[in-house]
Recover the amino acids of this structure.
């Protein structure tokens, strides 16, 4: 049982790291995680939070498919959509009504998929930073 828990933690950590990287670091991390047989992806986003929710979920799914993190099945796409929705739910109270920008990090190893969302929530020049994390298990 401990190995399954550590896999969840490894995948969640990878998703968070991907969400926090710049483009240069992202490429290096992809290579490092590939050696560990972990698939990762990342994508930027921005806009009004309320009108961006659907786009954020779509971008996560598209990035995961593009980087071969998931297959083009309802199960895999639903897992990414659900984990992304969970991460957004954790950020909802801070972000609703504001402009947001940031990055989505996605990681998968075996049957574990994690999605991390890093937000800069804008109000003039005062930005709030937040991270949401969702996890799903797929077979």
């Amino acid at each position: 049982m401990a190995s399954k828990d550590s896999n969840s933690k490894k995948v969640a950590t990878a998703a968070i790291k991907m969400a926090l990287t710049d483009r240069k670091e992202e490429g290096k991390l992809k290579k490092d995680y590939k050696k560990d047989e972990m698939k990762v992806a990342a994508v930027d986003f921005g806009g009004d939070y309320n009108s961006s929710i659907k786009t954020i979920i779509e971008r996560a799914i598209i990035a995961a498919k593009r980087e071969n993190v998931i297959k083009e099945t309802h199960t895999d796409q639903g897992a990414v959509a659900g984990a992304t929705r969970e991460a957004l739910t954790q950020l909802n109270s801070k972000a609703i009504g504001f402009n947001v920008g940031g990055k989505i990090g996605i990681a998968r190893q075996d049957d574990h998929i994690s999605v991390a969302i890093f937000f800069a929530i804008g109000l003039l020049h005062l930005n709030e930073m937040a991270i949401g994390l969702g996890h799903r298990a797929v077979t």
